Amino acid sequence: MPESSTPVDLGRAVEANHCAFFVRIGRPPGGESRTHLGTTRYESGIRHPVFNGALSSGSAGGTSPQAILDVLTHFKARGLPFTWWSLPSRDSDDLGRALVASGLVLEGEMPGMALDLRTSGRPPPAPAGLEITALEDPPNLEVYCRTLNAGDFQAPEEIARAIPRLLAPDPGDGRFRFFLGSLDGRPVATSLLFREAGVAGIYGVATVPEARRRGIGAAMTLAAVDAGRREGFHHAVLVATAMGAPVYRRLGFEEVCRIGAYIWGAAPGH
Question: What gap in Å lies between CA 259 and CA 125, rounded to an integer?
């Protein structure tokens, strides 16, 4: 872990953590990933744009028109929607224009955010009645993934059933820690800690619609953040949605970069 980080360092750490988390979706069985022409493509085989994607591998020369064509041809042949992530340290504005010209749609530019765990305060008490549990065993991961889907993707059942396969840690992979929030014994919220690139990455912060606006999402975020702090990380990082960004700012996260998400093949609302 770095002893100190400048804003540029933190921006790159956000990117590296984000890329490692999503490229991992393409691991077998059931998935695949490939780096070619300076671009890494990964796929899960699941027809949802969150679970298939492409991004620059950081090779010199940037993303070529041929690389864009190769990725599009691959996913079109399989009928798989996907997300192309635009990374500020690796990509120029020309990439976004080329992606749009190729038929992708800019979903948004999301703030990559960081929190200094050496100076931020300890988390406040969780909302009344909320119990947060760290999960590791597969049976509980099934419950976790059903709750995550209900609070975030709201994908059809055939997609929801596949999420545990995508998130289940490989043997010996200690980068993950899952958190499940319950009210009166009923699972209502999730968060996830992913350790990579010397920072504690926060993912999967979701609350089922009927339990929102009670501070539960903030509490779930801080559960993962505090776990990273206890393990000695200096910074927690995340990529925020429009809904989540105001919450993260109130918790002390600051923007250090912006990551573009370009979508191909998804229906409105995914």
Answer: 32
- Calpha distance 34→192 (Å, rounded): 26
Longest dimension (CA), the chain: 55
Q: What is the pLDDT of residues 211-269, one digit of tens each?
A: 999 999 999 999 999 999 999 999 999 999 998 999 999 999 999 999 999 999 975 44
Region 116-256: CATH code = 3.40.630.30
C-alpha torsion 76→110→27→146, nearest 10: -100
Q: Is 104 exposed, middle or buried (0-12, 13-18, 19+ CB in 10 A)?
A: buried
Dist. CA 194–CA 227, nearest whole Å: 11
Kindly report the pTM of this predicted structure: 0.93
* Cα distance between the two ends of the chain: 37
Topology given in CATH for the domain delimited by 7-112+259-264:
Aminopeptidase (3.40.630)
Q: Measuring CA to CA, how many Å separate 184 from each of 20, 131, 181, 211, 215? A: 35, 8, 10, 12, 16
Strand ranges in 208-253 using DSSP code E only, listed in sequence order:
235-239
> In whole angstroms, what is the distance from residue 136 CA to residue 144 CA?
10
Q: What are the sequence ranges of the domains in the chain?
A: 7-112+259-264, 116-256
Placement of tokens 């008490």 in the chain: 125
Q: Which residues of 249-258 are buried (b: 16+ CB within 10 A; e: fewer)?
A: eebbbebbbb
Whether the CB-CB separation of 22 and 42 falls below 8 Å is answered with: yes
